[in-house]
Design a protein that fits this description.
single chain; 442 residues; Rieske Iron-sulfur Protein; Naphthalene 1,2-dioxygenase Alpha Subunit, Chain A, domain 1; 2 domains; 9-stranded antiparallel β-sheet; 12 helices; globular
């Protein structure tokens, strides 16, 4: 089947296909702030592709649930004896917000408007005063919560309401090779540490996703304070010494090994127990990539980013940097607002001392009060503010041409289109090529 290209336009006549020329690194400033364009994204990207909704360890037992989003639609992810269901969080009687708690455990969901009650399989369990209100005309078997397709990989649960979307396996493609290394490297897998931290940033969701998929260059300036504080290696260009990897469907990551003149531990300095467990789970090629890893940012298109890094801290001034693993969902709340969901993850086999150490290290640099988090949020918000201007909207053309001169690496042990340095914007071009494809295909 050949996908047809749509002549989709904004109300001012701008063709959406003209907003980006990824192969030339040209992107219009409208992509960071135009509210009309955001409506297209909700319909053509979030409503059509796989969306991350939860980690399996957030709902480990039967009847555990969390409430999340698919685009701007509220959903419930609930575990049943048969697996995980994801439903639109709306009563089918009059559309009231059905479940208003962030998480919990329940056998039924009851609407506070009229009391319609639903089982965790989405069927109607009860209707108050049914005989008096409906007589014999209401067959509860005809009503059910709107249900999404659900699939998972490496502990990550995804959902889509698009029946024609490819399988999650096809959607993730070669990204699964790297998900295994950073999310699923031990036999028992990872677990989240507590509920996600949440806060709001006045920025466009793509700025954050692009930052994690592609932008190692910003550490030179935006995170210079981290170098001064000893949280990262004493070289402001430390993030250039690695490989950037572009994958199908807009996914991408960077794998930074650290400056050649600075001795850093292998395997992100994970405890010996974790490295040995990984050797029993991963392939030789995956272990070689893991061995070379010191700082690993990435993004699973559209808006699930992750960061597996070593970081020094004031808690550990005399020793080598310590690792932590975080993932974050850039939940769009408008063209210029994101609700950030961020989780800390740890391998289940980790010793208790390491679980506590990695948590403290994460809090110092990231999370709602982390030093690096504040740096990034200020930059993304600034991009949104500036690109709203009339002149900026009409004339500001952004240039993502870094690294276009590079020859690709051919001896990398993993899959993907591999650049020889992380000072490149190849993953930005890859991200926006997928973005453009989804917005302009029928």
């Amino acid at each position: 089947m050949v996908n047809k290209t749509l002549d989709a336009r904004l109300s001012d006549g701008t063709k959406i296909s003209d907003l980006t020329v990824p192969e030339e690194g040209i992107i219009s400033s409208k992509v960071w702030s135009d509210p009309e364009l955001f409506d297209f994204e909700l319909k053509k990207i979030f409503a059509k592709t796989w969306n991350f909704v939860a980690h399996e360890t957030e709902i480990p037992t039967t009847n555990d649930y969390v409430t999340r989003f698919v685009g701007n639609d509220r959903v419930i992810a609930v575990r049943t004896e048969d697996g995980v269901n994801v439903f639109l969080n709306a009563c089918v009687h009059k559309g009231m917000h059905l479940c208003r708690q962030d998480h919990g455990n329940t056998k039924t969901f009851k609407c506070i408007y009229h009391g319609w009650t639903y089982r965790t399989n989405g069927t109607v369990a009860g209707v108050p005063a049914q005989k008096e209100a409906y007589g014999d005309t209401l067959d509860r078997n005809n009503y059910k919560l709107i249900q999404a397709r659900v699939e998972s990989y490496g502990g990550l649960i995804f959902a889509t309401f698009n029946e024609e979307a490819p399988s999650l396996d096809e959607w993730l493609g070669d990204m699964k090779f790297y998900i295994d290394i950073y999310f699923n490297k031990t036999p028992q897998g990872m677990e989240v540490v507590g509920p996600p931290q949440r806060w709001v940033v006045s920025a466009n969701w793509k700025a954050a996703a692009d930052n994690f998929a592609s932008d190692s260059y910003h550490a030179v300036m935006a995170h210079a304070s981290g170098v001064a504080l000893g949280q990262v290696p004493p070289d402001p260009r430390f993030t250039m010494y690695g490989k950037q990897i572009s994958l199908q469907n807009g996914h991408g990551l960077g794998i930074v090994g650290g400056p050649p003149h600075v001795k850093l531990p292998e395997y992100l300095n994970y405890p010996e127990e974790i490295v040995n467990a990984a050797k029993n789970k991963l392939s030789e090629e995956q272990m070689e990539v893991f061995r070379k890893s010191n700082f690993v940012p990435g993004n699973i298109f559209p808006n699930l980013s992750f960061l597996n890094v070593m970081q020094g801290s004031q808690l550990n001034e005399q020793g080598p940097p310590q690792p932590f693993m975080t993932m974050r969902l850039w939940q769009p709340r408008g063209a210029d607002e994101i609700e950030v969901f961020t989780w800390l993850l740890v391998d289940k086999e980790s010793p208790e001392w390491f679980k506590e150490q990695t948590k403290q290290n994460y809090i110092v640099g990231f999370g709602s009060s982390g030093t690096f988090e504040v740096d990034d949020a200020e930059v993304w918000a600034g991009m949104s503010r500036i690109t709203k201007g009339v002149i900026a909207q009409e004339r500001l053309e952004l240039h993502y041409v870094m690294g276009m001169h590079n020859e690709l690496v051919t001896d990398w042990p993993g899959p993907g289109k591999v650049s020889p340095t992380t000072f490149t914007e190849e993953n930005t071009r890859n991200f926006f090529a997928q973005w453009k494809k989804l917005l302009t295909e029928e």
